[in-house]
């Protein structure tokens, strides 16, 4: 039997999922990977205090510059071939490397591959945040490949933004002409933040999967099913998956850190099956290339194209 890519599976599920009619009518199913553009010849790759590498795995193509046009083209081609429909790229202000990577991705993305920003900090105040969001609105509104939600350019916001300015500060800075997928980590936060955002997502899912030692897939199905159910009524529902997690090589991560072993690729396969069963509108992958936390699915020396292959085969 011919295998369909994940987007085809999502399209089939999308028609039968119990979601509001307006969400089904206006939002196409997406498979989006969180992307990081902070790697360069003088930053982003380093060593721990003990002299060891601070990222457990190494890119199959070698250490790279995120601004290299050949790297950008390769990353988009690999992701699109596997069935990923876009990147959510880390962003924390204009004029720096990550902003330049956002511009380069917007310029390079082919038809059918969406790009958006993951706003990771407020800049220190609601006023600065409002300026940053206005800047992003201008960038995304003029790009044909910008991620769309209900006819508006759409971006994502990380937990840290609300930690810095609070819900009141977010309300002051909130853009009028952008759709925003905000952060939520619990059922309570989903309930409290419905009025603040068009949709919600969780990024730090490792704090959930850290405890799933036995019965991983059963627990993933139960948790993701509930997670998607709690979001009903929002513009889209989201489910986040990851292939594994290990940030213990980073010097600033101390204490008993959450970890999720890859189990030879089985962790990602189990999470994908659990997410399929939950029937979200949008699938979110942590991550394309967060090498420091070992959540990358970009091909590596250690794991090859295993996770990309598993994803494409679903």
Describe the 3D structure.
Helices cover 38% and strands 15% of the residues. Strands 1, 2, 3, 4, 5, 6, 7, 8 and 11 form a nine-stranded mixed β-sheet that branches. Strands 9-10 form a two-stranded antiparallel sheet. Helix 3 links the parallel strand 1 and strand 2. The two termini are 12 Å apart. 44% of the residues are buried. The N terminus is likely disordered.
Order of helices and strands: HHEHEHEHEEHEHEHHEEEHEH
Secondary structure tally, helices:
11
Q: Based on DSSP secondary structure assignment, what is the total number of beta strands?
A: 11
Helix percentage: 25-40%
Q: Note the main sheet.
A: 9 strands, mixed
Mean residue pLDDT: 90
Task: Output the structural class.
Answer: alpha/beta
C-alpha-based Rg, rounded: 18 Å
- Low-confidence runs of at least 5 consecutive residues: 1-9, 11-25
Which key terms come to mind for this protein?
single chain, 314 residues, alpha/beta, two-stranded antiparallel sheet, 38% helix, globular, disordered N terminus
Quick structural gist:
By secondary structure, the protein is α/β, with parallel strands linked by helices. It has helices at residues 6-14, 21-26, 69-82, 97-108, 126-141, 159-173, 187-193, 206-209, 216-230, 266-278, 306-313, and strands spanning 30-35, 86-91, 114-119, 148-149, 152-157, 179-183, 199-201, 238-241, 245-246, 259-260, 282-285.
Secondary structure elements and pairings:
Layout: H1 6-14, H2 21-26, E1 30-35, H3 69-82, E2 86-91, H4 97-108, E3 114-119, H5 126-141, E4 148-149, E5 152-157, H6 159-173, E6 179-183, H7 187-193, E7 199-201, H8 206-209, H9 216-230, E8 238-241, E9 245-246, E10 259-260, H10 266-278, E11 282-285, H11 306-313
Parallel strand pairs: 1-2, 1-11, 2-3, 3-5, 5-6, 6-7, 8-11
Antiparallel strand pairs: 4-5, 9-10
Helix pairs in contact: 3-11, 5-6, 9-10
């Amino acid at each position: 039997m011919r295998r369909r890519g994940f987007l085809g599976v999502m399209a089939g599920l999308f028609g039968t999922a119990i979601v509001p009619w307006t969400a089904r009518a206006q939002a196409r199913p997406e498979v989006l990977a969180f992307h990081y553009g902070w790697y360069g010849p003088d930053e982003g790759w380093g060593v721990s205090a003990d002299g060891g590498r601070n990222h457990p795995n190494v890119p199959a193509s070698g250490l790279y510059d995120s601004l290299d046009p050949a790297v950008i083209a390769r990353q988009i081609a690999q992701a699109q071939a596997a069935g990923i429909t876009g990147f959510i790229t880390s962003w924390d202000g204009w004029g720096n490397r990550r902003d330049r990577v956002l511009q380069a991705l917007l310029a390079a993305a082919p038809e059918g591959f969406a790009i958006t920003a993951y706003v990771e900090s407020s800049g220190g105040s609601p006023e600065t945040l409002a300026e940053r969001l206005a800047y992003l609105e201008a960038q995304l509104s003029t790009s044909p490949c910008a991620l769309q939600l209900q006819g508006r350019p759409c971006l994502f916001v990380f937990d840290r933004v609300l930690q810095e300015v609070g819900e009141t500060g977010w309300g002051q800075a909130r853009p009028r002409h952008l759709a925003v997928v905000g952060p939520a980590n619990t059922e309570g936060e989903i309930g409290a933040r419905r009025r603040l955002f068009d949709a919600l997502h969780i990024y730090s899912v490792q704090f959930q999967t850290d405890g799933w030692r036995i019965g991983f897939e059963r627990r993933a199905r139960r948790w993701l099913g509930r997670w998607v159910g709690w979001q009903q009524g929002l513009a889209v529902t989201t489910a986040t998956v990851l292939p594994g997690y290990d940030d213990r090589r980073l010097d600033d991560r101390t204490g008993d850190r959450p970890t999720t072993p890859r189990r030879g690729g089985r962790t990602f396969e189990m999470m994908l099956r659990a997410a399929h069963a939950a029937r979200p509108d949008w699938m979110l992958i942590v991550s394309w290339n967060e090498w420091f936390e070992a959540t990358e699915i970009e091909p590596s020396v250690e794991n090859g194209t295993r996770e990309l292959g598993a994803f494409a085969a679903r």
